[in-house]
Design a protein that fits this description.
ATPase_NBD; Nucleotidyltransferase, domain 5; globular; 5-stranded mixed sheet; ROK; N-acylmannosamine kinase activity; UDP-N-acetylglucosamine 2-epimerase activity
């Protein structure tokens, strides 16, 4: 049996063929379209699936998408970090291929993939957190995948980390973990961080000239020993992530937290040291073990396919609802 996993990120859409035992057979990667209507993202996905399969021989399609989601409608009603803010997913794809489609948040899919095939196999209290363009999570408590009323029970990126912060998140709120620590927002946050400070630093000189400094450049400067980058990452950014992780541990009491996303995976030793340094000051429970996903970028594809390979009980209602809504029989 062969399944399709679709990983809808803020920057890229990844589509792959996955075997029933969790092996990624083939995959394609496409940039998110910069403009279009509510069907544009689905059309990109449909083309990618057709390129991989010729349109046949599929047993099911799993989609892990950036959120927030509206699972009942099978759509993303407002994606803060994506070029197209509102887009359909389930309806166009299920009509095109006429196979079961399962939709979940991208990090929700990832935690299910880790639970079935990865480092979280057999762990009944597990959280997957992606630290990338945005910050999101998938949560399993007592073997049950958390969903919520609309499919957003895991939007931990919008946890408030700093009530005094005037940095606005893409969702409109203030002081959120994603606003203060995500890859998309670090260029804004470091500009605020340097106000009233002075450093012997090339990065500092560029910022005082109002030059744009990317997240990648901040991390590169850190490894080059830049004084500002060292202070910002060691004494601010790592505290933000430690506070966020501690809040997750306090809320869900997991045995294991698996970290993914490009920002974490490209800086694993740095994140491990930095989080360890500050974590205990924010904890109220026994700390969870923290590991990094072993699937790399494939975790999105694998996790999405995992939703279709073994549909979580908490998503079955929505899968049946999609059938009835579209009046299809398989």
């Amino acid at each position: 049996m062969v399944y399709v996993g679709v990983d809808v990120g803020a920057t890229y859409i990844r589509v792959g063929l996955v075997s029933e035992d969790g092996q990624v057979i083939n995959k394609v990667k496409t940039r998110q379209p910069m403009s279009g209507d509510e069907n544009t993202v689905a059309n990109v996905i449909i083309k990618s699936i057709r390129d991989l399969t010729g349109g046949g021989g599929i047993d099911g399609i799993g989609i892990g998408s950036i959120g927030p989601l509206d699972l009942r409608e099978g759509i993303v009603p407002w994606a803060p970090n994506a070029p197209i803010k509102r887009f359909k997913l389930v309806e166009p794809i299920i009509r095109e291929f006429r196979v079961p489609v399962v939709l979940g948040n991208d990090a929700m899919a990832a935690v299910w993939g880790e639970y079935l095939f990865g480092i979280g196999k057999g762990v009944n209290n597990l959280v997957y957190i992606t630290l990338s363009t945005g910050i999101g999570a998938g949560v399993i408590v007592d073997g049950h995948l958390l969903i919520g009323k609309d499919g957003n029970a895991h939007e931990i990126g919008h946890m408030v980390i700093d009530v005094n912060s005037e940095i606005q998140c893409g969702c409109g709120g203030y002081g959120h973990w994603e606003a203060l620590g995500s890859g998309a927002n670090i260029p804004r946050v470091i500009k605020e961080f340097v106000r009233g400070r002075s450093y012997k630093s090339r990065l500092y000189e560029r910022l005082t000239k109002d030059e744009y400094v990317s997240t990648e450049e901040v991390f590169r400067a850190y490894y080059e020993g830049d004084e500002l980058a060292r202070d910002f990452i060691d004494n601010y950014l790592m505290r933000v992530h430690a506070a966020g992780l501690a809040s997750v541990m306090n809320a869900y009491d997991p045995e294991l937290i698996v970290l993914g996303g490009s920002m974490a995976l490209n800086n694993m030793d740095l994140f491990r040291r930095g989080i360890e340094k500050y974590l205990k000051r924010y904890l109220a429970v026994k700390p969870a073990r923290i590991e990094f996903t072993r699937f790399g970028d494939d975790i999105g594809i694998l996790g999405a396919a995992a939703l279709a390979i073994k549909v979580p009980e908490s998503l079955r209602t929505y899968v049946e609802q999609y059938r009835k809504f579209l009046k299809l029989s398989y």
